[in-house]
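Hi R.,

Here's the chain you asked about this morning:
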Amino acid sequence: MDTPYPTTATLPDWLDPTPWLEQSHTAADVRHALGTESPNEETLAALLSPAAAEFLEPMAARAQALTRRHFGRTVQLYVPLYLSSWCSGGCAYCGFASDRQTERHALDYTSVAKELDAIKAMGFEEVLLLTGERCPKADVDYLRDCVRIAAQKFHNVAIEVFPMAEEEYRILAEAGATSVTMYQETYHPETYDLMHRWGPKKDMLNRLEAPARALSGGLRFAGLGALLGLSDPQYDMLALYRHARHLQKTYWQAGLTISFPRIRNEVGGFDAPYPVDEKMLAQIIFAFRICLPDVPLVLSTREGAAFRDGMAGLGISKMSIASKTTVGGYGDAGSEEGQFDVSDARGLHEFCDMLRSKDLEPVFKNWDSTYR
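And here is the predicted structure, written out as tokens:
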């Protein structure tokens, strides 16, 4: 199929993880990585290596100590609100891809306000607004107005939408958005091209550069991540680390978060070509906490309750709960089909009780709207 978007990009030198993938690591390398006070790509490569799989206990202990040092005994909470399931993209792994035979929905402004009121009544102070790729039903003007409604009710309004130009991000920042989340999905160029079958998301470099444009446009925080299961996890995690470090050096005044989403069941029936089990996911989380000790690490309700309970405070410092992946669903009405299946379906109070039983304090507000 002809496409107006670039395919099969070449990674810039500052992002390419190849030099660290070509090295083999021993138990001695892992012990050295666990003791270093100046972590870098070599440290992360050792902690992600097969040799480190036998060191999960000391990795967990180091990760927990660093989490308590930088975040105390707290876990920050947020909740997502899907505004629209309309999408022009052809992501092979997504339940909202344009070839999925599902009804499409977009919340009107009255419904957006009602959904946000229902979320606010639950006690949340941070909401994440989501859409698919850019389309007439959910364009920048629509997002601007939804952000304005949300900013009247919440201190922290984040967006997880399509890549935009710097000026478009500035419009959303002026409307009250504070954070952007932009998962690269995979940093492996050939896999990226294969997984994004059509649509604007085929332009890999445009997506890669979007967090930098968002921070230049006035947003205060950027959330990064790769969809675990699409490609070699060591490749993607090393590139993710290099992406985060590049943004930290370039936008030192901004805040970052790192997420670890795994592929979940969706209506298209996609199977992960590189499945990541819970043991490997735990190793990844511990490795990132050790190498990025002061960056909030995020775990969503894609993961099951038992795994999330184990990771809370043990590397992870920010979590979603009571999440819906349908369009709406918190108030009177919501769509039937979600983007993917939620694994942790607990309510907010049950989840907070779990945190407190582990001597962890749920945090609903750590940002004030006066700083926008």
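One quick note: The chain has a mean pLDDT of 93.

Cheers,
M.
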